[in-house]
Write a structure and sequence with these properties.
This protein has 293 residues and is α+β, with helices and mostly antiparallel strands. The protein has 11 helices and 9 strands. The chain has helices at residues 25-37, 87-90, 94-100, 119-131, 182-193, 196-206, 214-226, 235-245, 247-251, 254-262, 265-288, and strands at residues 45-47, 50-52, 71-76, 81-86, 111-114, 138-141, 146-149, 170-173, 178-181. The two termini are 30 Å apart.
Length: 293
């Protein structure tokens, strides 16, 4: 589970670390030139049905203008960890743009307090606002024609070849008191801060995970339902499809039984999704040999 290639017609069996060579002076010079000309701030934008790594430039502003705007500091989490970011970078988020205009900002100190946010998640959000991605980055493997995570390595267990590599797929969330899937929490942060492309990116990364325990998946699904609106049609649907696709594993799980007995909207939606799945199968069968169920 959680082992999918972004390309629907292919499945990645292994995740390997790509090796690059810059021995050619011409290629090295071209690479260095691209770094020098790249604007310092950017994010992913949707293009051609997928995510294109396209940098955003503000009209009539130079590449360095975003790094000369005023600094805003943040105190994040219960321990009040300090972060800092430029106003123009923060303005890419409607939430922070409103905060900078004064809704949550202390005018004299230019400080925003986020006591309920997880520092590790907030760090990923800031990294995304500055770089257009967060570690580990989403990398395109041209040889396989598929997407994978930066620095990902194959698991030594052939029965469970997935995993994020050098970064754990889960993170401890103090408000829940449990470990949840990191990309799910980042997706929900994108929902909170109005960053639609961050949500798409987090969902794509989560789709590359594998070897996740049933209990972690179900806890993360509940968190997704608690922190996304009922109109969300991506992360919630991702979990429903995952449970249906891996139904044999979930059926054997005592955790699944306990969670279902506790109830919640997640399981009503799962029931509806299963009914739709059965209806689709019956409709396909009737198209070949009419019958009823």
């Amino acid at each position: 589970m959680f082992k999918r290639s972004i390309r629907s017609t292919d499945r990645v069996d292994k995740v390997v670390k790509l090796k690059k060579s810059y021995r050619d002076p011409a290629k090295l010079s071209k690479l260095q030139k691209s770094f020098d000309q790249s604007p310092p701030v950017g994010r992913y934008v949707a293009a051609g049905g997928g995510l294109a790594q396209t940098r955003l430039r503000k009209a009539n502003e130079g590449a360095n203008s975003t790094l000369t705007s005023p600094i805003v500091t943040f105190t994040v989490g219960k321990e009040g960890r300090l972060f800092a970011a430029h106003e123009d970078v923060l303005s890419l988020s409607p939430f922070f743009a409103a905060a900078v205009r004064g809704q949550f900002l202390e005018a004299e100190s230019k400080r925003i307090d986020l006591p309920d946010e997880e520092p590790e998640i907030f760090s990923c959000v800031l990294e995304y606002l500055y770089k257009g991605d967060y570690y580990p980055r989403l990398m395109h493997n041209k040889r396989k024609g598929s997407w994978e995570l930066e620095d990902a390595v194959s698991s030594p267990n052939p029965e469970n070849p997935g995993g994020r590599g050098s970064v754990e797929p889960t993170i401890y969330i103090s408000s829940v008191g449990e470990h949840l899937l990191r990309d799910t929490v980042i997706y929900c942060a994108g929902e909170k801060y109005g960053l639609e492309e961050l949500k798409r990116l987090a969902l794509r990364k989560q789709g590359l995970q594998s070897g996740i325990e049933v209990s972690t998946i179900l806890r993360s699904a509940r968190y997704a339902y608690d922190n996304t609106p009922d109109t969300d049609s991506r992360l919630r649907a991702h979990y429903l499809a995952l449970i249906i696709r891996c139904r044999k594993t979930f059926k054997r799980s005592g955790t699944m039984q306990t969670e279902m007995e506790s109830g919640g909207k997640l399981f009503f939606d799962l029931f509806v999704a299963l009914c739709n799945h059965v209806d689709d199968i019956v409709e396909m069968g009737n198209s070949k040999s009419p019958k009823t169920i």
